[in-house]
Amino acid sequence: MIPPERYAERLAGLAAAARSGGVDAVLVGVGPDLEYLTGYRAMPLERLTMLVVTPGSAPVLVVPRLERAAAEVEVRTDVTIDTWDETDDPYALALRDVAAGPNEALHLAVSDRLWASHLLRLQATRPAARFVPASTVLRGLRMIKDADEIELLRRAAHAADRVVGQIAAGRLVGRTEADVAREVRERLVAEGHEEAHFAIVGSGPNSASPHHDASDRVIQPGEPVVLDIGGTIEGYGSDITRTLWVTGGDPANGPDEEFRRLFELVREAQAEASAAARPGMPAERVDRVARGIIEAGGYGAQFIHRLGHGIGLEGHEEPYLVAGNDEPLAAGHAFSIEPGIYLEGRYGARIEDIVVCGRDGPTVLNRAARDLYVVDG
Ligand code: ZN
Ligand code: ZN
Ligand code: ZN
After folding, report:
1. Of the ligands numbered here, which is closest to the C-alpha atom of 314?
2. Region 97-113: what's the mean pLDDT?
3. What's the CA-to-centroid distance between 338 and ligand 3, angstroms?
4. If exposure means fewest CB atoms within 10 Å of the residue's CB, which of 266, 294, 303, 369 is most exposed?
5. From ligand 1's centre to the CA of 295, what distance in Å?
């Protein structure tokens, strides 16, 4: 549970970042930024709901009249709630008290997930203003997870760990990927997630497609199954990948030599990169650690995606562990470490954990074993 005073700190931090960034107002629509700043998880609608944060005055939340009661219950900090009626212009209301600093054109930051329909109306309301994404002033705050956020990420990770164990212990052969995915979703909720967000079940050749969803393909003995699953607890995500090999009970159906070799490279790359992350290290360097190992093993061209992504109120957020991102890691950054090797049309393997960069080094939140799960089922 995020304590209420944390939201006030975040709002004050954003106001300070806006001031130093020369931003006259941060306009936050429905989405993860609004949830981060107020605790309010509103429904995204064509009617405007907008938090207005300025350097100089108290934050105001503009909501349609029919959402007021919900907002009063859900907003977990002290903000003024301003309502608009069906025939009012909510964009004019949101911008009513927003003024440019001395000698400057108005400089407005809008939340990155704001719908274009809302942004276009804001732009029409203040045609001379300059608009930038709110992440320019908010990213620094959102990237650094506090102890309560890390605790939620940990709870989500442990819940997902348990689901991996349950699926690996159950029956897989003869079932469709979609059927297993349904079970994964049910178990994610049963283990404490408020929602299951995704359940990738890639069997046989589908394991070579990193974002394969789950199809009607029937799982066969003698092939791998990549499970990549996650959901949320109080808005914070889990995201774990483990690779299984199903034998159907016949040891002759075990993994072949090439699969064992590529899995071992993935395992080593994942372990070394997870151990490497520390404050000050450029994000791309962690990717390099993993990629170097996989390249040396001869599969560099088959590791076709970045090493990892930040995680928090969004399943994919900053920082991204990818070549070209020289942003230094900092204590409180939380991200996935998920190298994979994919032989198109044949098979693939991936291992993914959520890692938090601490002052003295990394903490891996997931506890599920990272070996190849060779299972009878
Ligand atoms: Zn992914
Ligand atoms: Zn994943
Ligand atoms: Zn991921």
Report:
1. 3
2. 87
3. 7
4. 369
5. 21
Q: What value, to the nearest 5°, has the Cα angle with vertex 135 and ends 340 and 73? A: 105
In this structure, what are the phi and psi dihedrals at residue 77, rounded to the nearest 5 degrees?
Answer: -145, 175
Residues with CB under 5 A from ligand 2 (ion): 228, 239, 241, 352
φ and ψ of 257, to 5 deg: -65, -40
- Ligand nearest to the backbone CA of 200: 2
In the chain, the domains with their CATH numbers are 4-142 (3.40.350.10), 147-375 (3.90.230.10)
Contacts 24+ apart (CB under 8 A), 284-288: 284/321, 284/322, 284/323, 284/324, 284/325, 284/326, 286/321, 286/329, 286/337, 287/321, 287/322, 287/323, 288/323
- Please tell me the distance between residue 115's alpha carbon and the centre of ligand 2 in angstroms: 26
* Structure tokens that stand for 152 in this block: 């939620």
Quote the pTM value. 0.95
Q: How far is CA 176 from CA 84, 214, 216, 224, in A?
A: 50, 8, 5, 14
Alpha-carbon distance of 253 to 246, in angstroms, equals: 8
Residue-wise pLDDT for 113-149, tens only, equals: 999 999 999 999 999 999 999 999 999 999 999 999 9
CA 147 vs CA 143, 230, 333, 347, 358: distances in Å: 13, 21, 11, 39, 11
Question: Which residue bears the tokens 């994404």?
Answer: 133
How remote is the CA of residue 227 from the centroid of ligand 2, in Å? 8
Mean pLDDT confidence for 259-273:
98
Looking at all shown ligands, the one closest to residue 315's CA atom is 3
**144, two tokens:** 């650094």
Percentage of the chain lying above the pLDDT 90 cut: 96
Does 103 score more than 80 pLDDT? no
pLDDT at 176: 98
Tell me the residue ranges of DSSP E strands in the chain.
25-28, 50-53, 60-64, 80-84, 107-110, 130-133, 195-203, 223-233, 236-237, 240-246, 308-310, 317-321, 334-337, 340-343, 347-350, 353-358, 361-364, 373-375
- What is the CA(26)–ligand 3 centre distance, in A? 29
